[in-house]
Design brief:
With 82 residues, the chain is an all-alpha fold. The chain is built from three helices and no strands. The chain is globular, with a radius of gyration of 13 Å.
Length: 82
């Protein structure tokens, strides 16, 4: 969010999510297999720990929803002008 980020990653703004953080873009609209966020929540990234780090991992339905959203282009609401 606006006040707290880890590893330079901010997911509350589309431009920030596409730019990514210390490990590159969080998502690549279209090919979900190339999206860092999916690899991290499914614990398939060779160097990064599963997220969320604390608490339960995403369930299969949540992962499927995230995967479908990315595969379909990761539509994002327009950001308010500041």
């Amino acid at each position: 969010g606006e006040k707290k980020q880890e590893s330079g990653l901010r997911l509350d703004l589309k431009a920030s999510a596409l730019q990514g953080g210390d490990h590159g873009p969080a998502l690549v609209p279209g090919p979900s297999a190339e999206s860092l966020i999916l690899r991290v929540v499914t614990d398939t990234h060779p160097e990064l720990a599963r997220m969320p780090e604390k608490g339960e991992p995403l369930n299969a339905a949540q992962v499927a929803l995230l995967r479908a959203w990315i595969d379909q282009g990761a539509a994002w609401p327009a950001e308010p002008e500041i």
